[in-house]
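<purpose> Linking amino acid order to shape
<body> The protein record starts here
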Amino acid sequence: MGHHNPLRDSRDLRLPRIAGPCSLVIFGVTGDLSRKKLLPAVYDLASRGLLPAGFALVGFGRREWSDEDFVAYVERSVRERARTPFDEDTFRHLAEGMRFVRGEFDDAAAFEQLSKTVSELDRLRGTRGNHAFYMSVPPSAFPIVSRQLADSGLAKSDKGAWRRVIIEKPFGHDLQSARELNRVVAEVFDPDSVFRIDHYLGKETVQNLLALRFANTMFEPIWNSNYVDHVQITMAEDIGIGSRAGYFDGIGIARDVIQNHLLQLLALTAMEEPVSFSADDLRAEKIKVLSAVRLPEDLSLHTARGQYSAGWQGSEQAVGYLQEQGVNPDSTTETYAAVRLDIDTRRWAGVPFYLRTGKRLGKRVTEIAVVFKRAPHLPFEQTSTSELGENAIVIRVQPDEGVTLRFGSKVPGTAMEVRDVNMDFSYGNSFTEASPEAYERLILDVLLGEPPLFPTTKEVELSWQILDPIEQYWATLGQPQAYRAGTWGPKEADEMLARDGRCWRMP
């Protein structure tokens, strides 16, 4: 038996660095995102020993709360949603640094109070002037919160201390609004201090995609148009819009998901090997891919959109989108979108990338499927390979993270019969460490000031340049095609692939 080092076993190699002294200020702290994701993620970081002793958490909101009320609210959220077990001591230590500031976004006095509160925390908790501001608020509130932070002196870093701002998607609703938001935020914060959150990029599998491609000699040589027939990137949800009608209606799923998550996944799948995994080198490669994306010449043939109608989701009856509470009964907002994109680079010439996303589909799944060309010559009799499909590498981002390889294998027996089989790797079974939740990873990266996973201004603008013409075309069409809840989207989407002689995979 070798020498046992208990320290080595308990170390989490994926998140090895502890943030320095700082506070996190959350605007919109009483909203869903904060309650379900951000507050539990902060607790999980604390419980794994990744937050400094001098950490503080400040909530900003309209409620008439005392600090104690805020602590009780955080505790409820943590007990309901945290990944790590609830520990009284950990929570009590965290709670000593919690404060609540009441106010509206246009209330200068509330921001003065916030400024006093963080100065007091610098003194009492030793946060040393390092503060991150999380805007868990609608995009329309970004400009006013940014200006208030500037006017109250909270936005500028000084004397070696840092100030950072974290902005949730969507970043604008088209290129023009994204540029305007970028301008407002850039007037207030240094470019290096702005972190745009795309929680998809915090998921372990997305980073595993980079490892899969660049750490293994068996994949990269075939990751190009010589071998790849096409790529399908799918983000399917089995739920409807829930209580998000106010946000979702009028925005639609293409702006909500394709512009950010799916185009980022496309960039990571298609990019060239970066010189290093530093933020700047990764961004440079993603920007090259997004700059090379070409839209189909005829959008009527190579895009599809739909809207769910009533149907069965599993054993439950689901109402149609137009019957959802808060939705305009004449709404033309799409709940399903599919597009074909091409990438004008040497590596991907002639390989279509199909992106699709929708609500109330057959099941919840996000995956990237790289589908290979068929073998050029099959020396088997026609009958023996009747079931053979194309080889594929499928990277599952959620829910059961992992990778599947699909290839042809001989069926046991005397005849030479070849059939498709799957070889499966799943994170849950291969590693004993639990993957950190996306928001844990991203919040820690912000506190450490490490930006590789955050899309830059340029990436955001390029993504809107890709989507805007599609949105403008769709705006001329009227009602999207209906598809029944619990199915895989409108007929139009199947026809779109059939025209290219392909079909969607069943995830």
Q: What stands out?
A: The two ends are 45 Å apart (CA to CA). DSSP finds 16 helices and 18 strands in the chain. The CA atoms of residues 224 and 347 lie 5 Å apart. Residues 20-168 form a domain with the Rossmann fold fold (CATH 3.40.50.720).
